[in-house]
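To the wet lab folks,

You asked to see what we're planning to order before we commit. Fair enough. Below is the target structure as tokens, and below that is the sequence we designed to fit it. If anything looks off to you, flag it before the synthesis order goes out.
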């Protein structure tokens, strides 16, 4: 149905009216879009659908005669997207009232728990990327001592988080720690979450150019991400390995803030005296290292394989010290760390002899580079399947030119899903004569087409890395 297809696109664009209109009128085949996801039939979605259909029917009904109705129907097809927008605008006061009421209930719930249990802690995590990894590490470590209430990673907006807390009220009231991610596309969205969560501790992982199209400028991204630091009541951990955080921290520190900011150069962990004897285990079976805890080195081992996992663990361990976890808690928590699905997740096929590194949920430049360094540890052919990176705004060309200069050093076969991003990659690899020129490039029109052809591409001993997976609105 045309209306449900449009509503699906509107939801995929997070109800962003301008992006919705731009997509629909720049992709003239939107009505035949092949959907991998489904509409989330929230109350808002149901009302929009009902109102949009009624508006369309009434507009047809009130035309003058049968012939005009036929002509009008064809004209209306072009204008149908606006019925979706008009319906949403008409119900916006109701949506805002309902949202504010839910946020208020969530805030009252948190205050009630705080009053009953003064030791109840809230830990928030934000950043352009790396949020899920930090949350996963913290959960694995802290659950060795505490009862953790974990908000799933796909729930990171103010309304989504508030609804989840209210629906799981009993479990939340029995927990010691609330652990969650905070996402944003605009200034003020993280502030809105913090207003009812009131985080005691927070982590700011990175500030990149993800969603630059939506934010409008790098300055807006920095301001939005630092909203979590400003709202933290005790200690905010910030990653000063990220130059954007370091630069904005100088501005932020000039303000009068109540929280303590703990700056950590997490990418420089090897020179910190806290980490030593790093050993990458064979056949992507994990990493071992030693960590200095309370003036004594303890042996740690994880099944995770990413080069950046040690920096993530290092980032989290400072909080475990503050919360008085034992050395045994830390060792066990690190050992029990599980792969985050689709984030450098290892899948081995014993029958074909092919190793898959699934990093399809990663969509940032630094993550791409970390994954390539991980792939570099493979012994056989190294293959990458990617559509590139989206929502980079004015940085799109520069980022993909950088990828084009880097891929030939790590990859034997590059499988590209055709779009403007991969066109930049392919053209720059072909044009640059100063780089390794024996990389093989194969292009596909769709993700499904690429996956169907893997049986013809892959050989025994190959390792293939899936980098990023675009949603249907791309």
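Sequence we intend to order:
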């Amino acid at each position: 149905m045309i209306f449900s297809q449009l509503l699906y696109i509107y939801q995929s664009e997070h109800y962003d009216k301008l992006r919705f209109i731009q997509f629909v009128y720049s992709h003239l085949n939107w009505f035949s879009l092949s959907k991998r996801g489904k509409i989330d039939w929230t109350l808002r979605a149901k009302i929009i659908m009902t109102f949009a259909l009624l508006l369309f029917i009434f507009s047809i009904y009130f035309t003058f005669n049968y012939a005009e109705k036929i002509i009008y129907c064809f004209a209306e097809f072009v204008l149908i997207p606006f019925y979706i927008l008009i319906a949403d605008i008409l119900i916006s006061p109701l949506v805002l009232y309902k949202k504010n009421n839910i946020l208020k209930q969530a805030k009252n719930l948190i205050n009630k728990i705080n009053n009953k249990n003064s030791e109840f802690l809230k830990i928030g995590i934000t950043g352009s990327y790396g949020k899920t990894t930090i949350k996963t590490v913290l959960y694995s470590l802290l659950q060795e001592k505490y009862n953790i209430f974990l908000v799933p990673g796909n729930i990171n907006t103010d309304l989504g988080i508030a609804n989840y807390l209210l629906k799981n009220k009993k479990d939340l009231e029995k927990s010691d720690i609330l652990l969650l991610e905070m996402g944003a596309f605009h200034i003020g969205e993280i502030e809105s979450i913090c207003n009812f969560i009131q985080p005691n501790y927070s982590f700011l992982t990175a500030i990149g150019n993800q969603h630059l199209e939506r934010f409008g400028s790098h300055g807006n991204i920095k301001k939005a991400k630092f909203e979590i630091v400003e709202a933290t009541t005790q200690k905010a951990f910030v990653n000063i390995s990220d130059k954007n955080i370091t630069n904005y921290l100088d501005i932020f520190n000039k303000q009068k803030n109540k929280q303590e900011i703990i700056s950590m150069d997490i990418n420089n962990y090897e020179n910190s005296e806290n980490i030593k004897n790093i050993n990458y285990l064979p056949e992507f079976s994990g990493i071992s290292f030693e960590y200095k805890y309370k003036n004594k080195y303890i042996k740690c081992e994880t099944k995770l394989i990413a080069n950046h996992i040690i920096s993530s663990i290092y980032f989290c361990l400072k909080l475990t010290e503050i919360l008085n976890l034992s050395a045994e808690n830390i060792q066990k928590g690190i050992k029990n760390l599980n792969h985050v699905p689709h984030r450098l997740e290892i899948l081995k096929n014993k029958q074909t002899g092919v190793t898959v590194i699934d990093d399809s949920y990663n969509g940032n430049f630094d993550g791409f580079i970390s994954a390539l360094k991980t792939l570099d540890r493979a012994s056989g052919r190294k293959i990458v399947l990617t559509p590139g990176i989206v929502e980079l705004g004015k940085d799109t060309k520069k980022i993909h030119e950088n990828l084009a200069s880097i891929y030939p050093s790590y990859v034997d076969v590059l499988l590209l899903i055709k779009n403007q991003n991969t066109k930049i990659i392919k053209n720059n690899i072909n044009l640059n004569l100063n780089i390794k020129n024996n990389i093989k490039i194969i292009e596909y029109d769709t993700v499904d087409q690429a996956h169907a052809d893997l049986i013809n591409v892959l050989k025994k001993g190959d390792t293939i890395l899936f980098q990023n997976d675009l949603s249907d609105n791309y």
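Structural context that might help your review: The first strand starts at residue 121 and ends at 126. The chain has three domains: 2-96, 117-335, 345-467.

Thanks,
Computational group
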